[in-house]
């Protein structure tokens, strides 16, 4: 290949940072990843260290990619970066982090949400922002920040998210992408498509801390001499940062046209449908797609893959030890046990609200539940029921979408959890929807690298990524299992309704 024909994509996820180097033919040259942790301060308060988890991981992944590929940094035409969002990463004028990042899982800003609703009304919030008032959105975290940490707030120059913090460290430019701005509700006004001075004055500030909005394929800046020294990348290399990690994961497997659908089997379970006009249904998350002219309707569950990792870490010590000896993963060993359990886990149902929940119930007080336990149930039953919980949650979203006139007959499957044939089968059986799994999918880092290639003019159009995706395995729903799961699903829906007030009472005791 000629020089400048390689592209670097890095995604800073909730639990790990992943990167890929691809050529101008769209094929991977090297991959790398590193895990990081989240810090749960107390119930509903979740933070990360941006210097360690975001910038530190980025540098580690880049070093690994350069070593494994043996590609000279001078041959890299562009860098694309995505990440978990909506988050709050406050930096001062010298670019130093003022306090740890408050990430999207965090639920502490619920009072700020209630206060704004009392002042302007629920309907007005949705009309202005396109979304419900919920602590998930970074704008409410910012309001909490200015009210509860005034000293830190005064030190803050700009508020970024995980990926834009790395972009700032690389380029010195504070920014936010078009696909993320609606997730900074209530500060973004969808009617005028700009930051809202009105909301800012109403709550006492905030908008002056928000960065300029960049379009998806815009070149935000280029790598500075200092960043080049720290990362090993070449000074002057262009940097793009197209959007949230979840949307980039879906985009990476070809979700580009209206009607396309995808489920992201990540730490959080995100379901996407592309629409050509905004729906702004408050039960769902609404934002811009990375493909210009389109919108995304999102079902965002806080803990899906997170439940599976929780089980592995808390109860799968034997599998973790055996996996090293057997050359497999703890998840694969747990899957083998769960495969021997009947669909429906012999009457066991899990409510997946271990961190409260976003869509569609938007309840900070919701709690997880393992319902139906008997002495007949084993660890394998609980593990399978955790897998099934993601399917019930996804079906809940799909039924809402259908009520809005969105038809979903099949969807793409992406991210680490989609490697599990068992989990994909469970999801299809519960929802009744076929899935196409892109087996060789590189996830969000590939989408990042491809859009960097558009910025560097190695690829013509953002939509052309579809030409570089090869669909592998297809999963069809089992009709008999679907009947069983349909009965269980009705109980799943009732469980939340019957325990909602009890969860609220429990939350008031154990905050």
Structure in words:
- Helix 9 (245-252) crosses helix 15 (444-455) and helix 12 (330-338) crosses helix 13 (379-403).
- The protein is globular.
- It has three domains: 1-85 and 216-253 and 442-461, ATPase, nucleotide binding domain (Nucleotidyltransferase, domain 5, 2-Layer Sandwich), CATH 3.30.420; 88-160 and 180-214, 2-Layer Sandwich (Nucleotidyltransferase, domain 5); 305-435 and 478-509, 2-Layer Sandwich (Nucleotidyltransferase, domain 5), CATH 3.30.420.40.
- The protein has helices at residues 50-69, 110-120, 122-129, 138-148, 150-155, 162-171, 197-203, 225-231, 245-252, 305-315, 317-326, 330-338, 379-403, 421-431, 444-455, 479-509, and strands at 6-12, 16-23, 28-35, 39-42, 45-48, 76-83, 89-91, 101-102, 158-160, 175-177, 188-189, 194-195, 212-214, 221-222, 238-240, 261-265, 269-275, 285-288, 295-301, 349-351, 369-371, 410-414, 434-437, 473-475.
- The strands form seven sheets. A seven-stranded mixed sheet has the order 18-19-17-16-22-23-24, with helices on both faces.
- It starts with 5 loop residues before the first strand and ends with a helix.
- The longest helix is centred in the last third of the chain and has 31 residues, at 479-509.
- It has 511 residues and is α+β, with helices and mostly antiparallel strands.
